[in-house]
Specification:
alpha/beta, eight-stranded parallel beta barrel, 11 helices, 12 strands, binds ligand PBG, binds zinc ion
């Protein structure tokens, strides 16, 4: 018999303590942002059937329950989405000083919430047509939308948001928002741009939750074709040039190659958005008893970190943080 190689890879797998010191990727709630859907009313906790364990909540529930729970679990912060009670052609409710998101941000501060407060900056929940920009003659206009996005971002910064996250995929949205923020003295407000946002079919549950499905057409004239990885790099590169502090890849799980490539090319922090459809698929299979959804989630989030994501936006943040904190198993 030939002399066996001295290398035995199983040696480093032989016990939990050895496995722990050689683990290459860590999963920690201090990297998680938890998305929340905030609406008007009091004591509202409205379940969203396609997003198990996620609810539309009122501001009192947000500050009184969710924010404190997230803080206790060590979750980095919240990403706020507003569900407005009225919509119009231009989505003007989105930049109202007293809009739901603006009031929620103030309420979090008033209640001493210490985590990162990030807000989604877009028009689609607020427009009657459900598109992410200003619509004329059935087309989504780019430059006409920039002013609106800037006003929304500014109203969030004024309320006290730490991070504004433009998700409309309009060209030059980052530079427009950066300029507007700087002019008003908000040079410390961070921009986390949804830079590589694909025209994905995985946003379905989110659109149910936020009532934001487009009433005609789709978003393929502004979101990236899922076939285009190189184009995603151009989007990210441009956003960095325009002043984005953090860039995002969305969805995450089906686009791990994009996260990885961005990690290799750019030095900026990268956020991965584990979107509603990805979460819903895993949860649904779990409900059918086909797999252990919690552990699949943990594996999925680990894969995003392994690919190079610094920040993970996930609906499973609370659940996963509980497990990581050793509260369950
Ligand atoms: C809207 C927006 C979407 C998501 C976040 N912001 C969906 C869309 O483009 O319709 C998706 C999030 C998810 O699916 O979890 N600008
Ligand atoms: Zn949008």
């Amino acid at each position: 018999m030939e002399t066996p190689s001295p290398i035995r890879l199983r040696r480093l797998r032989s016990s939990p303590k050895i496995r722990a010191i050689v683990r290459e990727t860590t999963l920690d709630p201090s990297r998680f942002l938890y998305p929340v859907f905030v609406r008007d009313g009091e004591r509202v906790k409205e379940p969203i059937p396609s997003l198990p364990r996620v609810e539309r909540i009122s501001i009192d529930v947000l500050v009184g329950e969710i924010a404190s729970m997230a803080e206790e679990l060590g979750i980095a912060g919240l990403l706020l989405f507003g569900i407005p009670s009225k919509k119009d052609e231009l989505g003007s409710e989105a930049y109202s000083r007293d809009g739901t998101v603006q009031r929620a941000v103030r309420a979090l501060h008033e209640n001493g919430y210490k985590g990162v407060i990030a807000t989604d900056v877009c028009l689609c929940q607020y427009t009657s047509h459900g598109h992410c920009g200003v619509v004329r003659d059935g087309r989504v206009l780019n430059d006409e939308t920039l002013d609106h996005l800037s006003r929304i971002a500014l109203s969030h910064a004024e309320a006290g948001a730490d991070v504004v996250a433009p998700s409309a995929m309009m060209d030059h949205q980052v530079s427009a928002i950066r300029r507007a923020l700087d002019e008003e003295g908000f040079e410390e407000t961070v921009i986390m741009s949804y830079s590589a946002k694909f025209a994905s079919s995985l946003y379905g549950p989110f659109r149910n939750a936020a009532h934001s499905a487009p009433s005609f057409g789709d978003r393929t004239s502004y979101q990236i074709d899922p076939a285009n990885g190189r184009e995603a790099m151009r989007e990210i590169e441009l956003d960095i040039e325009e002043g984005a502090d953090i860039v995002m890849v969305k969805p995450a799980l089906l686009y791990l190659d994009v996260i990885k490539e961005a990690r290799m090319r750019f030095g900026v922090p990268i956020a991965a958005y584990h979107v509603s459809g990805e979460y819903a698929m895993i949860k649904a299979a779990g409900r059918l008893g086909w797999l252990d959804d919690l552990w699949v989630e943990i594996e999925a989030l680990t894969a995003m970190r392994r690919a190079g994501a610094d920040i993970i936006i996930t609906y499973s943040a609370l659940e996963v943080a509980e497990v990581l904190g050793g509260r369950r198993r």
